[in-house]
């Protein structure tokens, strides 16, 4: 026992196949900032273009007070300063949806995960580890990477005469766990933005609506007669643009978050099945 223990630890650690992926995540703070700036630019210079109003504000500035929108699209401008923030939130959602879609599509690999695992099981049953590794090279993705790391340790343990079967199985299992720990953070990264915006966008929309209603009722108190009723109806209409933008952005965030988490769950299940396949195969074939 005293001689076996020291050799078990190096065997499990000496040849980790998957190395940490040192990639920055600058998009996590650059994208929201750029999207908010883009949202303001769209609100100020496209929606709030002087050509879209019958009475434009010639002074310009950060928030020109144009009047008389010519269309429903330009009326969105009068929803207030919350509108560009909501547009920025919507653009942020689109940015991270595209980023997560590309990342998860890459992590899924080139073929069906279940079919890939069946092919590996077939090669292992025939004791052809090299062919199983070749399948991992063709599959790629997170499941392929984890399986390949486990197969390399699997191949190493076949020729290892110092450890017993149980220790070899534990070494393979540890290699799979280490590879899994390096793959999962990449899959879940930046999903927090979608979940956060899903909650915050609705609240921001309601805030814009409340601000618009306060402004509308304040104008109602200053005016009288039919003009007051007209101003109130226009103000409520403009305020509700905030609610529409907030709810729409939140709905897209929730839908895409659920789609991505479902895909990640499928990949995670494939990784778990890969580890189970390797350990069970080794335990049954190399007793």
Tell me the layout of helices and strands.
Layout: H1 4-13, H2 27-47, E1 53-55, E2 67-69, H3 72-75, H4 82-108, H5 113-125, H6 129-139, H7 141-158, H8 165-188, H9 191-222, H10 225-285
Helix pairs in contact: 1-8, 2-4, 4-9, 4-10, 5-6, 5-10, 6-7, 7-8, 7-10, 8-10, 9-10
Describe the structure.
This protein is mainly alpha-helical and 287 residues long. The chain has one domain. Helix content is 77%, strand content 2%. The chain is built from ten helices and two strands. The protein has helices at residues 4-13, 27-47, 72-75, 82-108, 113-125, 129-139, 141-158, 165-188, 191-222, 225-285; strands at residues 53-55, 67-69. The protein has a two-stranded antiparallel sheet with strand order 1-2. It is rod-shaped. The model is unreliable at 1-15 (pLDDT under 50).
Largest sheet: 2 strands, antiparallel
Name the overall outline.
Answer: rod-shaped
| Beta-strand proportion | under 5%
The topology string of helices and strands comes to: HHEEHHHHHHHH
Query: What kind of assembly state do the chains in view correspond to?
Result: single chain
Spatial separation of the terminal alpha carbons: 19 Å
SS summary, helix count? 10
Radius of gyration from the CA trace? 29 Å
Mean pLDDT over the residues: 86
Find the structural class using helix and strand composition: mainly alpha
Number of beta strands: 2
Question: Which range best describes the helical content: under 10%, 10-25%, 25-40%, 40-55%, 55-70% or over 70%?
Answer: over 70%
Low-confidence stretches are 1-15
Strands of the biggest beta sheet: in what spatial order? Answer: 1-2
Number of domains: 1
């Amino acid at each position: 026992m005293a001689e076996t223990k020291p050799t078990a630890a190096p065997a499990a650690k000496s040849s980790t196949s998957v190395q940490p992926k040192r990639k920055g995540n600058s998009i996590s703070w650059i994208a929201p900032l750029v999207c908010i700036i883009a949202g303001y630019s769209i609100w100020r210079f496209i929606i709030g273009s002087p050509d879209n109003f019958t009475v434009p504000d010639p002074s310009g500035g950060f928030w020109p007070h144009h009047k008389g929108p010519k269309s429903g699209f330009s009326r969105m401008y009068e929803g207030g300063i919350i509108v560009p923030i909501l547009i920025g939130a919507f653009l942020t959602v689109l940015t991270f949806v595209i980023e997560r879609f590309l990342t998860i599509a890459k992590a899924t690999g080139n073929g069906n995960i279940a079919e890939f695992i069946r092919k590996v099981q077939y090669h292992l049953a025939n004791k052809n580890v090299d062919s199983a590794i070749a399948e991992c090279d063709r599959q790629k993705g997170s499941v392929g990477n984890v399986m390949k790391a486990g197969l390399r340790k699997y191949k190493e343990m076949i020729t290892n005469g110092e450890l017993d079967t149980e220790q070899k199985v534990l070494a393979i299992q540890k290699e799979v766990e280490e590879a899994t720990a390096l793959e999962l953070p990449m899959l879940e990264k930046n999903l927090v933005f979608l979940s956060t915006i899903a909650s915050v966008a609705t609240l921001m929309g309601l805030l814009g609506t409340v601000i618009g209603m306060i402004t509308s009722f304040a104008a109602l108190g200053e005016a009288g007669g039919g003009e007051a009723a007209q101003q109130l109806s226009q103000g409520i209409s403009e305020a509700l643009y905030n609610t529409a933008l907030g709810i729409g952005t939140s709905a897209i965030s929730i839908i895409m978050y659920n789609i991505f988490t479902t895909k990640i769950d499928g990949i995670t299940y494939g990784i778990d099945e890969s580890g189970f396949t390797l350990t069970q195969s080794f335990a049954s074939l190399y007793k």
